[in-house]
Specification:
alpha+beta; 5-stranded mixed sheet; 5-stranded antiparallel sheet; 13 helices; 15% strand; globular
Length: 406
Amino acid sequence: MRRPATAEGRRLLDAIGGCLDEVRAGARVNHRDGRFPTAVFDRFRDHGILGGTVPAELGGLGVGRLHDTAVALAALGEADPSTALALHVQFSRGLTLTYEWRHGRPAVRPLAERLLRAMARGDALVCGAVKDHRDAVTELAPDGEGGYLLSGRKTMVSMGPVATHFVVSAQLPAAGAPPDLVAPVVRRDTPGLTVVDGWDPLGMRASGTVDVVFDRCPVPAGDVFARGRVGARDDAVLAGQTVSSCSMLGIYVGAAQAARDTAVGHVRDRGGEPPAAVCTLVADVDARLFAVRATVAAALTEVDRVSADTSLEPGERGRQMMTAFQCAKMTVNSLAPALVDDCLTVVGGAAYTAGHPLARLARDVRASWFMQPYTYPDGVGYLSGQALKLDRDNNYVSTRAGGHRS
C-alpha cells in the first residue's frame, strides 16, 4: 500500500504528490468551514489527475488497477481524507466507465467513451448519485418522444460542488413487471436539476457532499446505462460495485497513517523516556497500522486478480471480488478508528480541540462505516450469508429499490 504496481500508478502518485502541500495547507480551514477545495481540484485538472483512471488511449493516465488507485488515494488521504473522498468519486467513475467502454453493450459504449475523453481533458467531473433521499424514489419515465424524464432526489453525493455530470441510480417502471434499474447520465446544466448544498456532517466536512434534485430532467435515450431489474438475483453486479468502491479503502489507510505520524511526532518532540503506557500505545498503533495496510493491500491484489479472470462464472466472479472487499472493509472499520483513538490518548488533552489534526481524523476515519457497499449491518449480512450459504439478494441497489416500493 505504499508503492504502485504499474508505471501508470507511479505517474498518478507522482502527480498527486505535487499537490499535497496545497491540500495540507487548506485542510484545517476547509474542515472547519465545511468548504470544498475547489482550487485544489483546479490543480488536479492542471496535472491530469482528473483523468487518472481513464485509459491512455482516450487521453488519460491509464491507471486500471484498484491497488494503484488506492495507493494514490492513501497518499492524498494522509493530507486530507475529505479531498481524497471527493477525488475517489472521479476515479471510481473512470474505472466503471472504462468497463462499459470495453465490455458494455454496443449502444452505450459511445456514451462511456464521450465521458471518459471529457474526464481526461478535465472537462468532466462525474459523480455517482445512488442513495435516494429519505422516502423518495428516483424514477425515469418515457417522455413520449423517444427520450426520458428523470424525477427524484439523491443524497450523499460527494464532489457535488464541481460536478459536471451525475450518473443516477433510478427505476424505470415496466408494465406488469418489477421496475428496471437504470443509470441515466445527467449534465449539471440540464433544466430541472438543482444542487442543494446543506452538508453539515460530523466528518468528511470538505468532501462537497450534497443533495441533487431532479424535476422532470430531460434525458436522451442514448444517455442511459442498464443495471438489471429490481429483485433480480444476479451476483455478477457485485463485480461492478466492488470496482466502484474498493479503492476507497486507501483513504482510511491514509487517515490512519496521518494519525500515527502525528502521535509519534508528538512523543518525539516531548523528548526523554516516554511512560510505559505511552510506549505500549505506540506499539499497538504501529501493529494495527501494519494490519490495516496488509489487509487492504491483500484485498486489492485479490480483487485485481479476480477482476481480470474472465473465465470465471460471472456470479462467482462478483462474489469473490465482493468478499475480499468486505473482509478488508470490516477490518478497516474496526482497526482504523481504534488506532486513531489511541493516538488521541497518546497526545492527550491537546488533541481534544476542534482544530487539532487528530480531532479531524477521528471524525473522518469513521465515515467508512456508512459507505456502501456495505454499511456494517449489511456487510455482516453479506459475509455471514456467504459463509453459511444463505439464500440472499446481495445487490444492495436492488434490495433498497424493492424496499421503497413495498
